[in-house]
């Protein structure tokens, strides 16, 4: 049947159109439609007349089942309950009659009920093949240039599949697959590939017996127009029977719109002509099966389509799905703590409301734009917050959906308040004549604090502010302390004690150092006294002996210098015994102040100041003007920031603004000052730079307060701007590539609006750049990893080879700690800066410098301190996989939850992060180049923000990287063999050389390991139940040690697995060639992909196989021309002698008896002709000589005595009568005449 005739029946056939896209949908078609759909097919023992005996088979895709169901025409049912759970069952039909004809489908029983039905099998009257079905399989839903697979299911095996296209009389493609499905591939999809396609089948032996054509399939190339928008009115959640309007809107007029539902593409394809540039798809009375994921697109008259719209999920339900409510960190909380109630439900895009039992109105609301985390927060809970809470959906449209019962959470507030924190200032170590302040902190107001000394139960102090001053008089302060408190609402209830804190000093475990210091101090005093006595004795002795005054003065000076040197050495010994750490008393983190406006060309018309803090414990923000005036106080939001609207600027608004963040009993340092200088002038920027170093690059920072401004850098004495920049944020960095003397001077910067007419700011305060002589930069590091969790202890080490230096520690360019110079050690100088307990706001970029009087050093290289556990943890993946050969490259991709972050890669056992990377997206790729054995180990990653104290995420889940090659390779076997029929079970056995190792099964083309086991012996068994066709491939395995040095083995030998009913066909070749030569044999070499097989050679024209061989070599001779002809070979597994492979491609041998034989070539003919000519010439010469021989034999005996020369001479004279006689003179002279001799 041609496609023209098919067009006449198009009205009787069901058609559908599908767009092919190179985009990944959030819900793939395969996962929605095909995941749990069983497979239905036909088997028969009459291949040429299959309708005489038919058996239907139904197979579940991924699990065994106890019940199967066969449906006919949606009414008749046949049950099969096998004796044991299985993957597939058969339904015998027998001979096909009119009563058996109809539409068949099958289902299988799952734990949750019956599965989706299989594809529909249409059995028509006897004498006809089943009508095939036709659909598209596109893994990435291709656009132009992508590949498309069109699948045709013929229901029977060993059929010929034909693909037809409208407008073509001949088929465009055909296939003879081994199964029931043919896959037609359209590579590199182009507009020319568009059109209507059908599929038909016929039996191989009966090419005249055709099936009915499949349903036509129309292909449209998409992606040529922008994607439309799809919205639901009145909303995406409706009750059955209610009406719904889906609106598809496009930016182009006059298009045809289409709506599809992903759950059932065949039955849910709707077309509509547009109203201007939009179309409405109306559902008058919704039904339950109308729920699903919808999307729309549009196309023109030439079927050029648009991109798909975003997926819109529609819910059709009588009652709302149940919501779950969880309390984090626990439903039992202590008074004053914070708790979050996490509401979770299956419906997306709907607001949520939090209710408390006994109250009619909701306590909190979350709209559709703020339910990313779906959490309700209760801060500083009290007894009034205790109760039963529930979460409900919040709709903005009317519907008759009933509200069901919801999961509730009972919040219990316990009696005892949470325990406080206890810290010591300036450190936990007493210094001479110095007191220590113990600071008690809690997150809510306190009535009274109590300090207790654990070694003495009676020692107790009470204070209101929580600061206890401890002195070390007589060594009584060096003990262990703890504290508790009570609140005003419950004055009789004391909290739990804080964690103990031990103070140390001369009376503690460092008494030996104190004694040594005191002994040295006493020795110095004694030396000075002795010096005085010696001087007095010398003067008395000199006066008595009358020695001159000069001698006395010199002797006194020498003795004095001796004692001074001795005292200095002792002092150095004293100070060198104990190296003290300088504890960093971290101030409350400085907040950030900036301005925002909705008038970018005239910001002063409406200005809002924002203040943000890096500390998560900030409660309030305070805005100050000119350092004294309190403008406003705002509570902190969840983003730890607050807005201060100023509105339109007036003269009263001019001044210098800065803000503070207010924590528990602590106020931060002020932010950088924002100066408003007029009503129509931009805020005055701030300019800053690090100390300039000769010959090095210098960055000048200009902070402009407003986003999207242009920045200009000026230098005093230069009329034109030095540099101009456009900044994406609120600041710009001007770069001087190489600082020289000519670059010294006063610099300032200004900002202006992006578009004309430009509105300018006042110039910043000038900044002088002067190149000074500097010491080399110090060496700066942390003793542990700079990526820490809150509460960790961090020590910074700043050192230099220079002697007697003082050190300064900087955080984000601001000085936070210092250490005075030490005269004790004659060697290098060093300083240790300690953070006892790191907080969220302590992260940032740290650096240090040292100085000696007026000369400073260059700044050290910065150390990025990252405080984790503030953002959600990222994911870390390895490409091409975690098992790598030595010398190969590995890419580790760290995927975060936010964009614009900085990423760091860490390796277990390494203190410093391996790599840093800043990206504008939400992921970073770290390349491990040419990995070696020492690169094996656990890797993790973290991301953090760079603007607010380096607040970081939780560490990712570690991923193990194995670099193979250190251990002997294992062996890999497959049981029962490398060829397995679909549906059977298979076991991989990986045998290693070391016990108690971890084994990993790998498959070529798959990034992640398939399975991992840690058996107790030397072997791991990987079981694969019910293998399918996609399980075919090349497998290998490795094993490794679980602990350092994480040694891994080489890959095992690759093992190729075929999941098929027939092994793949072998290859057949001839050696030395396919042409017989006289007396020569030909060896036919049959080669297959599997070991342990037996080969058989077949010759056309012979019924029985000609030869069998285990190595695949067959020797063929051409006796009587019987060797020529077509040969093919096949093989069978020795383990499965009844399963034969497909025959190889035919190979033709030719020779003398063959039609193409040509034994004698042109060269042979020429050589043979020359041989004949030479032989004939020799024969003629011999015949002539034979005739002459008798005459020589009959001569007289007297001639016999002559010598040979005379005889030959006479013979020649007789033989040449016509020759002229030689002259006498010549004879008499005895001249020798050369006689001709016949040859």
TrEMBL record:
Residues 1194-1239 are annotated as: Disordered. This is Immunoglobulin superfamily member 1. It holds the Pfam family ig. Residues 1219-1232 have a biased composition (Low complexity). Residues 1194-1203 have a biased composition (Basic and acidic residues). Keywords: Disulfide bond, Glycoprotein, Immunoglobulin domain, Membrane, Repeat, Signal, Transmembrane, Transmembrane helix. Residues 1-28 form the signal peptide. One of its GO terms (biological process) is cell surface receptor signaling pathway. PROSITE patterns: IG_LIKE. The keyword Repeat applies. The chain crosses the membrane at residues 519-538, 550-569.
